[in-house]
Amino acid sequence: MEIKPTEFFQTLGHPQRIEVFRLLVRRYPDALAAGEIALALDVKPSTLSVYLGALLRAGLLAQERRGTSLLYQARIETMQGALAFLVDDCCKGRTELCAPNPEPQPHARQNVLFLCTANSARSLFAEAILHRLAGDSFAVFSAGTHPALEPNKNAMAVLLAKRYDTGPLQSKSTAKFLAKDAPKMDFVFTLCDQAANEDCSVWQGAPLSSHWGLPDPAGVRGSDAEVRAAYEVAFERIYQRVQGFVALPFETLDRGSQQKAVDTIARL
After folding, report:
1. Which pLDDT tens digit goes with each residue over 31-88?
2. Are residue 124 and residue 251 in the same domain, yes or no?
3. How many domains, in total, are found in the chain?
4. Which 3-state string (H, E, C) describes the chain?
5. Domain of 188: which CATH number?
6. Could you list the residue range(s) of the whole structural domain that residue 175 is in?
7. For residue range 115-136, what is the model confidence (pLDDT) as tens digits?
8. How far apart are CA 10 and CA 18, in angstroms?
């Protein structure tokens, strides 16, 4: 499907359509049902249907059917093509003038931020795991868009049983990392859908970001054993993803390849 750059920009020039596209980019590689998109953006289903149709015609979204549901996913390759058009055609290939995110200069330790809503379980799991696996290579942080007063006791029990040091783990607000004197992040990962749905401020340094969403174990109801099992499953899935991240050959990957790699890890 050939997409005309003018159609791309015209479609995204509509304030509500671009909000739909931005949400799906934040949730990429997830594919979302229309109902979830409408709920996240507080848009009427009939109105959203019009927006989705326009975005599909412009090649900005992919659509697939799963059972009785139609799911929508951002077509990143279309956005990449439009950016390439700006650089190659409008800027005549002068990337030093037009490239939006030049290759970052490497430094001793890369900064990684894990985000969730409460910053009480999943994001703290990720912080603890990455610190243990590669604390020499990465400075690790976590935060919540609506942080809890304290870490989740069930999550801390799982970490303590695995001999993790939980002393430094605290629930913190994202505002701490949006301040002017905050460390510039190299990677930002969202671990819950609600945090990814929220339109956070732009992070300093234009870090790579990816959505590593998984179910909240705090939402599980049942016996003590069932609740504990839910936290164990969350820990193991996050461990797999963080382990895959640590194993990436960063020194041989350019920015685009790193982005593709961290998006692939989201499927683990």
Report:
1. 999 999 999 999 999 999 999 999 999 999 999 999 989 999 999 888 888 877 777 7
2. yes
3. 2
4. CCCCHHHHHHHHCCHHHHHHHHHHHHHCCCCEEHHHHHHHHCCCHHHHHHHHHHHHHCCCEEEEEECCEEEEEECHHHHHHHHHHHHHHHCCCCHHHHCCCCCCCCCCCEEEEEEECCCCCHHHHHHHHHHHHHCCCEEEEEEECCCCCCCCHHHHHHHHHCCCCCCCCCCCEHHHHCCCCCCCCCEEEECCHHHHHCCCCCCCCCCEEEECCCCCHHHCCCCHHHHHHHHHHHHHHHHHHHHHHHCCCHHHCCHHHHHHHHHHHCCC
5. 3.40.50.2300
6. 110-265
7. 999 999 999 999 999 999 999 9
8. 10
Residues 264 and 262: their CA atoms lie apart, in Å, by 5
Residues 171 and 251 in one domain: yes
pTM, two decimals, is 0.81
Residue 29 maps to which CATH number? 1.10.10.10
Strands 69-74 and 32-33 turn out to be antiparallel
Q: Does 216 fall in a domain?
A: yes
